[in-house]
Automatic annotation (TrEMBL):
This is Zinc-dependent alcohol dehydrogenase family protein. Residues 8-343 form the Enoyl reductase (ER) domain. Its cofactor is Zn(2+). Gene3D superfamilies: Medium-chain alcohol dehydrogenases, catalytic domain (3.90.180.10), NAD(P)-binding Rossmann-like Domain (3.40.50.720). SMART domains: PKS_ER (SM00829). Keywords: Metal-binding, Oxidoreductase, Zinc. InterPro entries: ADH-like_C, ADH-like_N, ADH_Zn_CS, ER, GroES-like_sf, NAD(P)-bd_dom_sf. It comes from the Bacteria. GO terms for molecular function: oxidoreductase activity; zinc ion binding.
Length: 356
């Protein structure tokens, strides 16, 4: 089969790679029908995730069809259309029993495209299939479903739920990439008074407006003052960090009100300063987290009911064999306007970013 193989920092290719085989009775083999690229994949290609060994097929999000299952798999069978979750869960360890699948001690967690071969290929082996794939109804398209493998549960769990968004809140989302935009969409489910989005890219700020943000701010034009003006100087109830650089994290801690929440979602490659000299008297809660995907069934039902604008974040589509081109488009988002690229399924080549 073909797969997108990591060979070391700055080195990767769509090339022949061995077909996956069942290794454990709890495994399933999935034929990939739709897959997407994550910002974490770009971090891997830059060498920021040293656990990924050369020769690994990348990717941790997919929709496809079950073609083979191990003898212990009970909930899916060949022919079933499924969502492949970015998180694998053994279902037996302490963390899985608590629903904290991202911290699985039984060989799960984030392993696809990280510790084992991933989804950016024609076929993928999924360990612990009973808990790690989700059957799909015909009411959910591939484009909608594939965004529920990672970015929507990440934004919802690590951003909105950890941030404890409540009705009437002022919510600030710093970073209007795919996860930040998904945070806007899922925060709206809790009826905040307003959502403010901060970013550098005009196209992404416009996308945030179309997804329901009441106010947007260019990060270079004093967004902290805007938040202060909107809240009577108090600060935001919840600030969601969706960039992953020290400057934006520190900005978030300055924009939150006393007693508020800062929910860090961004993947940080450098240390950020926690200014306890300013925060220690303010009762501020700072949370971090790796997604657990325990919310995926709920998000799937909401998508099927038309309550989540998942597919609106897809700006480009490609066939699988144009994986290298898709990476180029996604990695140059500032120039291409890319939010999410989806490979496989009906092709829409290039769609303008203002289509969101």
């Amino acid at each position: 089969m073909k797969g997108y193989v990591f060979h070391g920092p700055g080195q990767s290719a769509w090339e022949d790679t061995p077909d996956p085989e069942l290794k454990e009775p709890t495994d399933a083999i999935v034929r990939v029908d739709a897959v997407t690229i994550c910002g974490t994949d770009l971090h891997i290609l830059k060498g920021d995730v040293p656990e990924v060994r050369p020769g690994t097929v990348l990717g941790h999000e997919a929709v496809g069809e079950i073609v083979e299952v191990g003898t212990d798999v009970r909930t899916v069978r060949p022919g079933d259309r499924v969502l492949v979750s970015c998180i694998t869960a053994c279902g037996r360890c302490r963390y899985c029993r608590e629903g904290v699948y991202g911290q699985c001690l039984g060989g799960g967690g984030w392993i696809l495209g990280h510790l084992i071969n991933g989804t950016q290929a024609e076929y993928v082996r999924v360990p612990y299939a009973d808990l790690s794939v989700h059957p799909l109804s015909g009411a959910v398209t591939d484009e909608d479903a594939v965004l529920l493998a990672d970015i929507f549960p990440t934004a919802y769990e690590v951003g909105v739920l950890n941030g404890r968004v409540r009705p009437g809140d002022t919510v600030v989302v710093v970073g209007a990439g795919p996860v930040g935009l998904a945070a806007v969409a899922t925060a709206r489910l809790f009826a905040p008074e307003r959502i403010v989005v901060v970013d550098l890219a005009t196209a992404r700020l416009e996308a945030a407006r179309k997804l329901g943000a009441e106010a947007v701010a260019d990060a270079r034009e004093d967004p902290e003052q805007l938040v202060a003006d909107l809240t009577g100087g108090l600060g935001a109830d919840v600030v969601i960090e969706a960039v992953g650089v020290p400057e934006t994290f520190e900005m978030c801690t300055r924009m939150v009100r006393p007693g508020g929440h800062v929910a860090n979602v961004g993947v940080h490659g450098r240390p950020a300063i926690l200014h306890l000299e300013d925060l220690w008297t303010k009762n501020v809660t700072v949370t971090t987290g790796l997604v657990d995907t325990r919310s995926t069934p709920t998000l799937l039902r909401m998508t099927a009911a038309g309550r989540l604008p998942t597919g609106q974040l897809v700006t480009h589509t490609f066939p699988l064999e144009r994986m290298e081109e898709a990476y180029e488009v996604f990695s140059a988002a500032a120039d291409t306007g890319a939010l999410k690229v989806v490979l496989g399924g009906p092709q829409r080549e290039v769609v303008a970013a203002d289509a969101v």
